[in-house]
Specification:
Blueprint: E1 4-7, E2 13-16, E3 61-72, E4 77-82, H1 85-102, E5 108-109, E6 120-124, E7 136-141, E8 144-149, H2 152-166, E9 177-186, E10 192-198, H3 206-218, E11 223-227, E12 229-230, E13 233-234, H4 243-246, E14 250-251, H5 263-270, E15 286-287, H6 292-303, E16 308-315, H7 320-325, H8 353-369, E17 374-378, H9 385-388, H10 391-399, H11 405-422, E18 426-430, H12 432-435, E19 445-448, H13 452-460, E20 465-467, H14 470-473, H15 495-499, H16 510-514, E21 516-523, H17 531-538, H18 541-550, H19 558-575, E22 587-592, E23 597-603, E24 610-614, E25 625-626, E26 631-634, E27 639-646, E28 652-661, E29 668-670, E30 675-676, E31 683-686, E32 697-700, E33 706-713, E34 719-727, E35 749-754, E36 761-766, E37 777-782, E38 791-798, E39 806-815
Parallel strand pairs: 4-5, 4-6, 6-8, 10-11, 10-21, 11-16, 16-17, 17-18, 18-19, 19-20, 20-21
Antiparallel strand pairs: 1-2, 3-9, 7-8, 7-9, 12-13, 14-15, 22-23, 23-26, 24-25, 24-27, 27-28, 29-39, 30-33, 31-32, 33-38, 34-37, 34-39, 35-36, 35-38
Helix pairs in contact: 1-2, 3-6, 8-11
Length: about 800
């Protein structure tokens, strides 16, 4: 593999080579560095009961000393010496600021006169005995802490690990840090450790992108694959083609797009150059793009943190916004709207010389803005309906001696790739054409999302490969089946599933393994309209991605990862990252008996931590009762059971969840607890923000408004209440498979059937009262089957066409 091109602070290249191809024994330990006297005296030589480090990702090699702790207190000096002083000093300065912002300790940069008394020294020597230009060594001893590296990049990664050493489990802000003595030797496993950010579907501010770059760099990720063009919006300013942003950067506001207003509009007025998304009403479109100046700022900001921004200009598909701007780019000559649906659009670029000139012009501008060696040209999800229907393209295909439209796409993409290669760049793209049985441009790095077999096929053809499996590293997928899980696409992808990703596919030969250059998590943003949702979707699964990309295969251990995770979550809190606690959140399983007893079993997804609870509605603390066995309560009374999860040291892993236990508990179900009638995993859709309280989230199989309640306890029930809402239809892919059920009235209705969806009618609830409503509505009805004395399966569905508005089900409640 050729060197991976990043950019240093001063704009010079920083070469990051694949450690996988450079095996070798770890070098001997360097001599311990300088003496430092803390303000409270010499660090004590007394050993703690169990000296340890809690680091994530796990370093390559750690050797704790048998005893000894180093005390780093307020006022400590941080020195820089050796080579690349102009590049390393800003790294040390940011490290000092990071420690101040999180640990609350005020460190100071040492001057030449005070460097001999430094607590921490960054020592960069191009000939240092560390592995690779991004490797480093940390020596912690009675004479202080020394970070040794060959290059500024290695010094940066060493600074991240040192920050983690200063924020161990249970750290207290403002107090001196005690670090166990020893030596860490570390280097990355893979050169490509990436996160994809989709700014096409939903737009993020420059400030938010820079925050994300800060955070991902602290997890030792080094590539931001920036998805800038989509059917739903063209986000990159190209001066030669102004309509791309004048027309292509705006779409009609549909669904939650209409609510993205308020603070966003105010920020746009305060900083108009930011080109923030500005929307909020049916007559105000959803708009946003990045100026050339903003792009250069983001690239510069990322380079200073050793993150390379790799732009993605998706071709020939995902191009409806470009065709909306310049209809001659399309096949039909017609001008579509910028797409408001999610899915795969048929509006592809026309594969001819005029379009290729347009693409070359765009890529020339992209290459001016992005110094990255790599440029992504997409190549995924190209629906060729319009191509196949075009006599002109069929004739072109025959003239080129091609057998089908997949080969025509291959011809087009090869021409695009050749232009990049001629300019010294390496094309990157998706694996879709390999799935179709065709070849990709020989120069292309392949991002594989279709599974291990396709990854192995790409490697066998000589491509370098980035693993990005849909089932574990698509971070827009929701993280749990809990009722309060945030919106996201199916299937559920837990933290453990992400961590279990096989980066080297099973069955890979040694040669194929050498072609695996890294791993990438993807955040597509159809269901992620805000930066708060982005944080929830990404974290803490980014920690799994971090360890997959950085740590060696021998370090991969789920239980070890869980033990180290609480300290990382505490760091996230200090950084202000709004991570999801789904893996540790308490789940309640309530069952009943004929003796009038409700039995409650508590658990969490990761099966980690201590579950502690209260029964009076108060907030559980680390001193509350610990759950050890199922709890029992009388069904005749009312109990507010609250549970939270704590790490054994007292750190709260998951915020409290609540379950009310009373005579109605078994007669009520949240829509998220119901199965879909198709047995397919449902999507989680956000509803309208109410005037008070949290935004509701609904689990629904898009295109099939149908749910199953298995073994519903129906003895003595007489009435039913459904809480429902109607959400906007914007799901292009599911349109052809939508299930339309006949209406009994003009507005339609919810129907409940016993035993199956065609079983006896249990209740019918007309939708007419809810149609004019905004947000949640309550429907009530008397059940039509009386004197039931057992549990029955129930099928609950809405009639009508979901494409006219998808009904979702929040809650089902029966009463006597």
């Amino acid at each position: 593999m050729a060197p991976f091109l990043a950019t240093n602070v001063d704009g010079t290249p920083a070469y990051v080579r694949s450690v996988f191809r450079r095996p070798g024994a770890l070098p001997a330990v360097f001599a311990i560095a300088f003496v430092w006297l803390a303000t409270t005296g010499m660090a004590s030589g007394a050993a703690p009961a169990a000296p340890t480090w809690s680091l994530l990702p796990q370093p390559t090699d750690m050797r704790l000393a048998p005893s000894g702790m180093v005390n780093i207190a307020d006022g400590a000096l941080v020195a820089v010496r050796g080579a690349y002083l102009q590049q390393v000093q800003p790294i040390a300065d940011r490290f000092i600021q990071l420690v101040t912002n999180t640990r609350g300790l005020q460190f100071h940069a040492a001057s030449s006169a005070t460097s001999a008394h430094s607590a921490i020294t960054f020592d960069v020597d191009p000939h240092a005995s560390v592995v690779g230009d991004t490797g480093y060594r940390i020596v912690v001893g009675t004479e202080g802490i020394r970070v040794i590296a060959r290059s500024p990049a290695g010094a940066f990664y060493g600074s991240v690990t040192l920050w983690q050493l200063l924020t161990p489990p249970g750290w207290t802000r403002g107090t001196p840090a005690e670090i166990a003595e020893g030596v860490i030797d570390d280097h990355p496993r893979f050169a490509w450790r990436a996160l994809l950010l989709d700014s096409g579907r939903h737009f993020q501010s420059v400030t938010d992108i820079e925050k994300l770059i800060d955070w991902m760099s602290l997890d030792k990720l080094n590539v931001l694959l920036w998805h800038l063009t989509e059917d739903q919006g063209w986000r990159l300013e190209i001066p030669k083609y102004p309509e791309l942003t004048k027309t292509g950067a705006c779409r009609k506001a549909v669904g939650l797009d209409m609510e993205l207003t308020g603070a966003q509009r105010r920020e746009s007025r305060e900083a108009p150059a930011a080109r923030r998304a500005e929307t909020g009403a049916p007559d105000k479109p959803y708009c946003g793009f990045y100026t050339e100046a903003q792009v250069r700022e983001i690239v510069r900001y990322a380079a200073a943190r050793f993150v390379t921004v790799v732009p993605e200009i998706d071709l020939p598909g995902h191009s409806q916004a470009a065709v909306a701007a310049y209809p001659w780019l399309g096949v039909t000559g017609e001008r579509p709207t910028v797409w408001t649906n999610w899915g795969i659009s048929p509006w592809l670029l026309k594969p001819d010389e005029k379009t290729l000139q347009f693409v070359d012009d765009v890529l020339d501008e992209v290459m001016q803005l992005f110094p990255s060696r790599y440029i992504s040209i997409g190549g995924d999800e190209a629906d060729k309906k319009q191509w196949n229907a075009s006599p002109e393209l069929r004739a072109r295909m025959r003239r080129l001696g091609l057998a089908n439209m997949d080969q025509l796409q291959g011809w087009f993409m090869s021409r695009v790739a050749d232009h990049l290669v001629e300019h010294g760049r390496t094309p990157v793209g998706w694996d879709d054409e390999l799935v179709a049985g065709e070849k990709l441009p020989a120069s292309q790095v392949v991002m594989t999302w279709h599974g291990n077999d396709v990854a192995l096929r790409a490697a066998a053809q000589g491509h370098d490969v980035v693993l990005s499996p849909t089932e574990s590293l698509y971070l827009d997928y929701y993280q749990s089946d809990l009722p309060d899980e945030w919106p996201g696409q199916p299937p559920m992808t837990s933290l453990r599933q992400s961590y279990a990703t096989a980066v080297i596919p099973s069955g890979a030969t040694a040669d194929a393994a050498r072609h695996i250059i890294g791993v990438q998590g993807n955040l597509w943003t159809e269901f992620v309209p805000t930066f708060a949702r982005a944080q929830h979707a990404l974290y803490p699964r980014v920690t799994a991605l971090s360890e997959l990309g950085w740590s060696g295969a021998s370090a991969h251990d789920w239980n070890s990862f869980l033990q180290r995770l609480p300290a990382e979550l505490a760091r996230y809190r200090a950084l202000g990252i709004g991570y999801a606690d789904s893996a540790f959140a308490p789940a309640f399983e309530v069952t009943g008996s004929r003796q009038g007893i409700l039995k409650v079993a508590l658990s969490n997804q990761a099966n980690f931590g201590e579950l502690r609870y209260t029964t009076d509605g108060s907030v559980p603390t680390v001193k509350s009762a610990q759950y050890v066995r199922p709890l029992e309560f009388s069904a005749r009374g009312k109990v507010t059971l609250r549970a939270a999860t704590f790490e054994p040291g007292g750190f709260e892993l998951a915020a409290p969840r609540t379950q009310v236990l009373d005579p109605t508990t078994l007669l009520t179900r949240d829509g998220s607890d119901l199965a879909s009638c198709s047995n397919e995993p449902g999507s989680r859709l956000g509803g309208k923000q109410p005037a008070q309280g949290a935004r509701p989230v609904y689990k629904v199989n898009i295109g099939d408004m149908c749910w199953l309640w298995r073994r519903a306890p129906l003895e003595g029930v007489e009435r039913v209440t459904l809480t429902v809402e109607r959400v906007a239809w914007r799901f292009g892919d599911e349109a052809k498979g939508a299930v339309v059920r006949p209406k009994a009235s003009a507005a339609g209705e919810f129907e409940i059937h016993a035993d199956s969806c065609v079983g006896p009618l249990f209740a019918r609830l007309p939708l007419a009262p809810a149609v004019p409503g905004d947000g949640q509505n309550h429907l009530n009805a008397t059940v039509s089957m009386s004197k039931l004395n057992d549990a029955r399966d129930l099928c609950i569905f809405a009639t009508g066409d979901p494409r006219d508005g998808q009904w979702v089900l929040a809650r089902v409640a029966f009463s006597n």
